[in-house]
Amino acid sequence: MVKEVGKVFAYYPKIGVAAIKLSGSLSVGDEIHIKGATTDLKQTVESMQTEHEELEKAKKGDSVGIKVEDKVRPNDVVYKE
C-alpha cells in the first residue's frame, strides 16, 4: 500500500540531501518514492538525520534530512511504498 508520508521543502545539491517535513512515520530501510512535476525517484532510506543527529525512525511533524540519489525539488511529495 502506497502512503503519502511527507513533502520536500529543500534540496541541498552539494551534499545530495532532501529536507522533508513528515506527515507520517518513516524509518531507515523504508522504500520511498519521491514524485513531482519533473521528479520520479524510488529508493531505500539509507540514513536519516535531524539537527545533525542520526535517526532510525521519525514521526509525523518531524523535519528530516535524507540522502537522495538524484535531484528533488521543493513541494515534491514523498510516498512510502
Characteristic terms for this protein:
81 residues, mainly beta, two-stranded antiparallel ribbon, Elongation Factor Tu (Ef-tu), domain 3, 8-stranded antiparallel sheet
Structure description:
About 0% of the residues lie in helices and about 55% in strands. The protein has about 80 residues and is an all-beta fold. It has a single domain (about 5-80), classed as Translation factors (Elongation Factor Tu (Ef-tu), domain 3), CATH 2.40.30. The strands form two sheets. The chain has an eight-stranded antiparallel β-sheet, with no helix packed on it. A two-stranded antiparallel ribbon has the order 3-8. The radius of gyration is 11 Å and the shape is globular. It starts with a strand and ends with a strand.
CATH architecture: Beta Barrel
Strand content: over 45%
Query: Count of helical segments?
Result: 0
CATH topology: Elongation Factor Tu (Ef-tu), domain 3
- Low-confidence spans: none
Give the structural class. mainly beta
Output the CATH class name. Mainly Beta
What's the pLDDT, averaged over the residues?
A: 97
Q: What is the number of strand segments?
A: 10
CATH superfamily: Translation factors
Helix content: under 10%
Shape: globular
Q: How many structural domains?
A: 1
Radius of gyration: 11 Å
